[in-house]
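Residues pack. One example:


***
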Amino acid sequence: MSHLRDASGAVVCVHGEHDHPDDDQHHVHDHSHNQKHGERGHSHGLIHRSIVRSRDGVRTVSISLAVLMVAAVVQTLIFILSGSVALLADLIHNFGDALTAVPLGIAFFLRSEWGERIAGLFIVLAILVSAMVALYESINRLIHSQHLSHLSVLAAAGAVGFIANEIAAQVRLRGGRRLDSAALIADGKHARVDGFVSLGVVASAIVVALGWQIADPIIGVSITLVILRVTWDAWRTIRDHH
């Protein structure tokens, strides 16, 4: 600020231009500070991607697990009534398929990529074990034949298995692609093929109703071969994922 005299001799105060830059700088500083503070405040509200992925993975696994467990329980009740080895093969596989979700869910919960890979290998092993058990039971029934009953209920059990596995496959495959999880994709493929395997149980009920009792264990062996193929495909998915 400077002081000048006018024509009458009175003192006049004049504001220099340098006063305004200071004010502008102060304004800019305040705006910048507020903006940065606002940005920091906004970032505090963000959730890390790994946490979002973890929650999504756990939710996906939990939904598919619940669907398959319900189907397996229903099939168990029907197996007790019918005694079908084709249904037993499918039942064992469905229980194994449901339980493979447990280590995978734990891996997602812990946000561990290493854990997901281990869970994927466990899934492959579980599929292989279920195939071996189903093969044993099928061969045993070939040697020691057993009359089947409640064929309409048996066919219904196969339908239940197909529907449940297709739902689980949809949930797992979509989640696996969304989360880029090889283990979840492998488990989804497993469930999808399982659904078609369940249709084998329906076929078994139909052919036995036509009088071909021997067809039941033969279909059980066929289901085992399909399970082995799924095992190989699941292993390749885990192995080739980077």
In short: The chain has two domains: 2-43, 50-240. Residues 62 and 193 are 20 Å apart (CA to CA). Confidence is low (pLDDT under 50) at residues 14-22, 24-45.
